[in-house]
Amino acid sequence: MLQALDWLSSLPVALLYLVIGAAALVENIFPPLPADTAIALGAFVAARGPGTALGVWSATMVGNIGGAMLMYYVGYRFGLPWLEKKIPALHAASGADQFQKRYQRFGIPGLALSRFLPGVRAVVPPVAGAMRIGAVRALLAMALASGVWYGVVCVLAFRAGANAEVVLAAISRSQRTVGIVAASTVAIGLGVWWLRRRRNGGNDAK
Questions:
Q1: 3-class SS at 107?
Q2: Which of 140, 87, 97, 139 is CA-nearest to residue 117?
Q3: Which end of the chain is more exposed for a tag (fewer CB within 10 A), N or C?
Q4: Whole-number Å distance between alpha carbons of 7 and 41
Q5: What is the pLDDT of residues 147-178, one digit of tens each?
Q6: Which DSSP state fits 26?
Q7: Which pTM value belongs to this model?
Q8: How far, CA to CA in Å, does 51 sit from each of 37, 42, 147, 167?
């Protein structure tokens, strides 16, 4: 995390925006990428330099919507059976089924809502394309959802960056408490493991 912050801090603001936009774009293609974390770090760094919250949000939106519409086209071009064949997780997680049911019930608002749901949000663009939902309607719904979500992420992270000294001081004060809690958790876990092992050993002996 600290290495990522150092690297982002070394970038000119224009390149920082480019990296943020790229992370937001790639998230739609490779969902495991922690784009939210990258964007939050970028907003944090931007607040420490000449960047702006609006600049971070704009770069995020361009990348996110660009990636979403790329996946929309893939779904539109190849269809749902092809998607399920090429992306096994799509079928295994039933994300496509959840999205289709939500869209059939709520329409475009359901499409926007689905972009907030873990496990479903990543499949919304390609499945929307496969279902032949109009490109403009799909774009507007996804832009609305992404705008709200990333607006919150950018504002919170930017404010944290602008008040980094206060945040770091609070973290420093809490480190001792966190350490005690962590040590206690480990001790309890080891105790439970030992008791279960002893009980299982007693049962085996019988």
A1: coil
A2: 97
A3: C
A4: 11
A5: 998 888 888 888 887 775 555 455 455 445 55
A6: H
A7: 0.71
A8: 17, 9, 19, 19
